[in-house]
């Protein structure tokens, strides 16, 4: 999920209109241009890596607060994306059920919005530099849904987005069922410049079965996998941190947005409540 650079945010806030992933503008939002996976194209799985952090979601009824925090509200202070939901930490929106984390979006009014959902993050609790990151998840189905599994740089509060870097391990929108999107964003490679590193492909059954969304991340590249199949590689081209800031710690986010700049203005109210289910999160280094 994309965030705004500081100068854009200030301009937008002055107009009382702010967004997280894509800046509102009278002009059409730039459409990411799928690119062919770049070298190295051979999948890399380092079996010597050890499990350093995980959540199996098999204890209790609520997310572990030693591992997860919440963003609360609409993001109108800068991290929102014109979405239709109000994020809460309520058990109706985020809970443990049958060995999975349930992030549930509901049709209910709160905070001036007509829907509620949840956005969990490890910011301030855990972050990582390099490694293999695996999330086994089943995605919601329905027009208006926008689930995401992604990462942001620990230094976001000092350097802002996009200089902090963003890794989109998985994005999906219900208006393009089974189409999965992977992206990386940096100061000079990001959507607002039309230079983002991005690719999308059809993955059958993302809403009917669990799939493993994985990255292999090193100082040289980030490789994006689904069920151990390599789909895209975002390389370090040796141009510095303005292009590849992914040599510093990043934290993880899991959320289910409704509507918004990528989810679209059309929302099918018949789908609610709908949920993203996460079986586990595992980090290897």
Describe the protein's architecture and organization.
The protein has 285 residues and is mostly beta strands. It has a single domain (6-22, 46-284), classed as Jelly Rolls (Sandwich). Helix content is 6%, strand content 39%. It is built from three helices and 17 strands. It has helices at residues 6-14, 156-159, 260-263; strands at 51-55, 69-70, 85-87, 94-97, 100-110, 113-117, 119-121, 131-138, 145-153, 166-172, 179-185, 197-202, 211-217, 221-226, 229-235, 250-258, 274-284. Strands 1, 3, 4, 5, 6, 8, 13, 14, 15 and 17 form a ten-stranded mixed beta sheet that branches. Strands 2-7-16-9-10-11-12 form a seven-stranded antiparallel beta sheet. Strand 10 (166-172) and strand 11 (179-185) form a beta hairpin.
């Amino acid at each position: 999920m994309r965030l705004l650079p500081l100068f854009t945010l200030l301009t937008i806030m002055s107009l009382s209109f702010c967004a997280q992933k894509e800046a509102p503008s009278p002009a059409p939002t730039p459409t990411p241009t799928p690119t062919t996976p770049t070298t190295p194209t051979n999948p890399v799985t380092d079996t010597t890596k050890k499990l350093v952090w995980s959540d199996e979601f098999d204890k209790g009824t609520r997310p572990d607060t030693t591992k997860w925090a919440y963003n609360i509200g609409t993001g109108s202070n800068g991290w929102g994306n014109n979405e239709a939901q109000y994020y809460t930490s309520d058990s109706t929106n985020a809970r443990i059920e049958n060995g999975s984390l349930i992030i549930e979006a509901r049709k209910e009014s709160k905070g001036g919005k007509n829907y509620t959902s949840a956005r969990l993050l490890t910011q301030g609790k855990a972050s990582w530099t390099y490694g293999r990151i695996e999330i086994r998840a089943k995605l919601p189905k329905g027009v208006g849904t926008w689930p995401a599994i992604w990462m942001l740089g620990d230094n976001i509060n000092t350097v802002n987005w996009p200089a902090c870097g963003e890794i989109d391990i998985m994005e999906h929108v219900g208006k393009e069922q089974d189409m999965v999107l992977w992206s990386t964003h940096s100061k000079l490679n990001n959507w607002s410049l039309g230079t983002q590193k991005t690719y999308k492909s059809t993955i059958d059954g993302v809403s009917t079965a669990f799939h493993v969304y994985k990255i292999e991340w090193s100082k040289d590249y980030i490789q994006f996998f689904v069920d151990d199949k390599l789909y895209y590689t975002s390389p370090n081209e040796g141009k510095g941190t303005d292009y590849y800031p992914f040599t510093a710690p990043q934290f993880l986010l899991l959320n289910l947005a409704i509507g918004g700049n990528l989810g679209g203005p059309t929302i099918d109210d018949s789908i609610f409540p709908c949920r993203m289910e996460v079986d586990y999160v595992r980090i290897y280094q």
